[in-house]
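Lab notebook: predicted structure, single chain.

Context: the supervisor wants predicted structures on file for every construct in the current expression panel, including those that have not yet been purified. This is the next one on the list. No modifications to the sequence; it matches the entry in the shared construct table.
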Amino acid sequence: MKFNRAATLVAAIAIAAGACTPGGAASPAGSPGGSPATNTASPPVATNTSPATGSPVASPTAAETSPAMSPDASPTGGTSPSGSPAAGGQYVIGVSNTVQANGWREQMVCSVKAEALASGKVSKVVVAHRNTDAAGQLSDIRDLIGAGVDAIIVNPTDPNAIVPALTEAIAAGITVVAVDQGVNEQNAYLMSNNQEEYGYLGAKWLFEAMGKKGSVVYQRGIPGAQADTDRDNGFKRALAEYPDVKVVAEHATNWAPATAAEQINTFIASGQPVDGVWTSGVDSTIVTAFKTAGKPVPPIVGADNSEFVRQLTTEQNLVGAAVTNPAAVGGAGVALALKVLEGQAPAEKQQLLKPEVWDNQTPEGKGKLQAANDPSLDPLWPLNITIPGWTTYTKEQLVACKGPGEQ
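Prediction complete. Output recorded below exactly as produced.
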C-alpha cells in the first residue's frame, strides 16, 4: 500500500453519497428482479482484436461543474511495485467519469461499484463522477492518484488530452483501464465495445430496412470523442456500400436526450421527407418525437436501451433494431484491473466486445428483444447488464449501486 501522497487534498474533496443518483441523473427505476444478473439474450463476446481502424475507442465530454468524489476518499490504497495489495488483501479502485444524467454512464459507474463489491477483493471505490471536460478530468485523475488508489477505471473525454495524468498514474504503480473508449497511452488497458462495428452493423441493417435507398437522418454523439469518431467511421463504411442512401441531416446530440429531441423536432417541423434514422443511443427520444408530432416513425436503429427495447417489442408498425453496447464494461474493467494487479494480465491489452443487432423484423431478433426486455430497469439503462467471463455481480447488486463499505 502506498500512503496517501496528498492527504490534505482529500479533505477538500466533496463526498457524493451514491454517484449513480446525482441530482437530475438517471437512476434505476422500479424494484430489482428476483433473479441474478443477466439480461443477456445473446451476451456480448470479448475479443482480442482491435477495431477496423486500429485505434482505441473513446467518449463524451460535457460542461464543467463542481467535482464529486465518493465514497470515503481516505488516504489508503495503492499498490507496492510488485503489485501486492494493501494490508488485508484489499484493493482500492478509483473511477473517473465525465458525464452525468446519462443512463449509460450511470449504469457504468454502478457496474464498477457492483463488481468491486462482488469480487471480495476491493475495500473501497473512490468515484470522481461529474460533468466536466478534459482539463477537469486531468484534475480528477490526479486527485485519484493523490488518494492512493491501486487502479483507475476511466471513461476518457479525449484519447490524448488526459494522457499526462494517466502516465503519472502508471509511473506511480497504478493500473489504468480505459472503458468504453481508449486512450493513447501504451501502458493502459482497454475494455470496450467495438464502436466502429456498432456504427457499421446498425447502419447496414437500417439501409437494408430502407430498401437500400432514400434519405436518412444521422443522429451522432459528440464529434471529436473517440467513440463518436469510430462509430462515424463505421456508419460511413456502410454508407459507401449503399450509394442510393443520402444523409439529409446530421446532428451532434452530445448523447443528451433533450438535445436530440430539440433537433429532431426542428427537422420534423421542416417537412423534409425521411426514410430512416440512425441514432447513437438517443433512440427512444426520436421515436417519441415522431409519435408526438403525429408522424409515422421511419425505420430506426439505436442501442439496447430499456425504453427503446420496450418500444421495439410493443409499438405497432415500428420497424427498428437495437445494437448492443453494454455499460457493464465498467464492471468488466474492474475485473481486468484485478487480474493485472494479481499478476494475471491478459496477453492483449485491448479487450473488445462484439456488438449484435437485435431487430424486430425477424424471429431471431424478436426473440432476443423479448428475452432482454426488462421494464424494472431505468428507461435509459442498457439491457446487457453483465459480461460473461468478466463480471460476477448480480442484478440486485447493480441496481443497488453500492460499492464496498457503502450503506
